[in-house]
Amino acid sequence: MSNLPAQTDNAGSDRIEAMIALTERLTASIALDAAAFEQRRPQEAAARLEETSRLANIYRHESSRLRQQPGLIAAASPAQKARLMRATEGFDAVLARQGRALQAAKTVTDGLVRAIAEEVASQRSSNGGYGAGGLATAPTGAATAITLNKRA
Question: So what's the pLDDT on residue 121?
Fold first, then answer.
């Protein structure tokens, strides 16, 4: 029985180390994605989407497990707690950066979609065409289909 506390402490220490490493990996991945969006190369972020999603899912699961077992963090060494805190702060900062980059990309995309829709609408409404004898005819007001999704 004397080995049990040592194993529990060691297992807790190992879990904290694993969480620090996972947080740092996820932070690096999201930072690359944010940089890709900032440089207007979303295809690069899309190429890493599967790995980033996998890491994010593991992070969500592991952080939930740590919340359910607060003793693991309480038993961590002060150095481990400080490293975990720094890793988490870095993660929060990169998430905020990514949020800004995604919002900027969304704003640009929304503007492009609006400009295209307005141009299409103005082209369709200004061209009436020609009728019998080569005389210009008024636009018919035919229905046109343009779909704008404000949530996209």
Answer: 77
Task: Report the number of distinct structural domains present in the chain.
Answer: 1
Q: Is residue 143 part of a domain?
A: no
3-state class percentages of the chain: helix first, strand second, coil last, to nearest 5? 80, 0, 20
Question: How many Å apart are CA 149 and CA 107, to the nearest integer?
Answer: 13
Q: What angle do CA 147, 150, 152 make, to 5 degrees?
A: 95
Instruction: Check if the beta carbon of residue 105 is closer than 8 Å to that of residue 42.
Output: yes
Whose tokens are 């919002």? That residue is 103
Residue 24's domain comprises 3-125
**Residue 150 placed within a domain:** no
Q: Considering the domain boundaries, does residue 85 fall inside one?
A: yes
pLDDT digits (tens, 9 = 90+) for 67-112: 999 888 888 999 999 999 999 999 999 999 999 988 888 888 888 8
